Amino acid sequence: MKSNFLWGTSSAANQIEGGWQEGGKGPSVMDALATVNGHRVENDNLDDQNLFFGSHKAVDFYHHYQEDIRLLAEMGAKAYRMSIAWTRIFPTGLEEVPNQAGLEFYDRVFEELHKHGIEPIVTLSHYESPLALAKDFGGWSNRKMIELYVKYAKTVITRYSKLVHRWITFNEINCAQVPFGIMSACGIYMSISDKRNTSQLRYQCLHNQLVASAKVVKLAHEIDNRNQVGCMIASMYTYPLTPKPEDVRANQLSMQVKNYFASDVMIRGTYPGYIKRYFKDHGINIEISDEDQKILEEGIVDYYTCSYYMTNCVSTNKDAEKTSANLISGLKNPYLQTSEYGWQIDACGLRSYLNEVYDRYQLPMMIVENGLGMHDTVEDGQIHDEYRIKYLRQHIKSLEEAVEDGVDLIGYCAWSSTDLIALSTGTISKRYGFIYVDVDDDGQGDFTRTKKDSFYWYSKVIESNGNTL
């Protein structure tokens, strides 16, 4: 790797911070998701003692940020991809004056990172729109969200212009297309099974986010010409299940619609022909003005980031065997092993994906999420997570091959720094971190931090710039 390669870790505010009512913070859509029998459910009564809301405490980064950043420094991290909680800055999203306590909290976080020589890579919106906007405006289905988001983004980009120069507008923006994204990515207080949760609604939400992103890209460049702004895509890389031509075509369309559409708009500045055909075939009519088109053309991003966990297969055979996946289900690949959660492990696919994306865009790339969620066991105060080391080793080897192929890869931030609350369940038993946090699925524990074996392994990877795996 190049000497300035950004080795690091990643997290999200709603999954680590806690302190959901401290420092003037307002509730986000994620704060309204309770865990019942391992599943997320919406609940208006956020103080219901009979329900568990994982984001309310999370792993308490709000009070442990100095310790957690010190541990990142001990690991040798060069970068930390994190997010700002919108509702710490504007509790309902409607305020004209930002919450000073929230701004000061991130002042301290960024200053602590810089003290340890760690570069922050900051996501402006990571699945946590203000709950008030979800209830009163229908979240991102309402164009009013665009200017409210721009106001928030302008506030924080201006405030932290001396401390942050790499920004990401929306986390996994393409997930606004999937039914699960209606509460998190689309910021709408609506269940997955709600009859109003239609493709039409979700694609309108996505369009509004694409316009908002483009506005913020242009704004960030005006605030400070050192600012670099990236897109962030959930890799939904798939293969045709068979060489049957219909399977190959089905896979091509799946990749276009699920994986490339959002980044095509954010990087090329216009809606591609295939999505216009897709909208026509599915009766989807998005409100796109001439002004929107101009904004999209003027606000293309500077670099490409993505999450990568697994791959799936696509087929026209409706009876093909399915398997679990990140946010959406997919078809089982008979040549891949799976994790205990049914996620298919495909390190080779990472190399293929990086090559395809780089060939398409020719922009600097960064992996900002990649990791393995497993049940970890504490044995005599230690966590021996060789399975995580094996997974990460395979994927780092694959990305190094991609660099040899000519891909301009500028960084790798593994998911995640500490253990954190899972997006889909709100629980912590499916652990991802290099650092174990003593808290259980009911929020009980003393929040003590313990370094796992993977912590020491990754430290050597960073120190050797990827030469020691």
From TrEMBL:
The keyword Repeat does not apply. Keywords: Glycosidase, Hydrolase. GO terms for molecular function: beta-glucosidase activity. Pfam families: Glyco_hydro_1 (PF00232). GO terms for biological process: carbohydrate catabolic process. It comes from the Bacteria. One of its GO terms (cellular component) is cytosol. InterPro entries: GH (IPR017853), GH_1_N_CS (IPR033132), Glyco_hydro_1 (IPR001360). Belongs to the glycosyl hydrolase 1 family. This is Beta-glucosidase. It comes from Lactobacillus equicursoris 66c.
